[in-house]
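Re: the 153-residue chain
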Amino acid sequence: MSEKIWQLYLSGEIHTNWRDEIKTLCVQKQLPVITNSPNTIHEDSDDCGVNILGAEADKFWHDHKGASINSIRNSTLIKNTDILIVKFGDKYRQWNAAFDTGIAKALNKPIITLHDDNLNHALKEINQSAAASCRSVNQVVKILSYIIKGELK
């Protein structure tokens, strides 16, 4: 019998290495996971539409083209994920991460949030819809280890 390979979608904050930390800890715990995420190269994400489809004089249409192309990637990966893990940070408002969370909730995908305590109030509705709300990547990976392997180590 083959072991299930879990699909994780890592959404949210792009200015720290939290995704790499989760990947490293999953490898250390030998968790059978594949991680996906939105394009985390900010310039590529912003400019993919005009780079592929042509320049726009109006910034609204520049952004619209990029958002449309990014939505194909992100919504497809979320539809195919087993668990959405979303990190909210202090430095920027992650509206796109909140939107990803809404998509995951509508698709009945389990959600794990990750953020500092100072964001509890701002994220109360998102935390309420999440299966778990964590304060560290270690907590996230401990949850993954428990649900995938049944281990509390």
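The radius of gyration is 16 Å.
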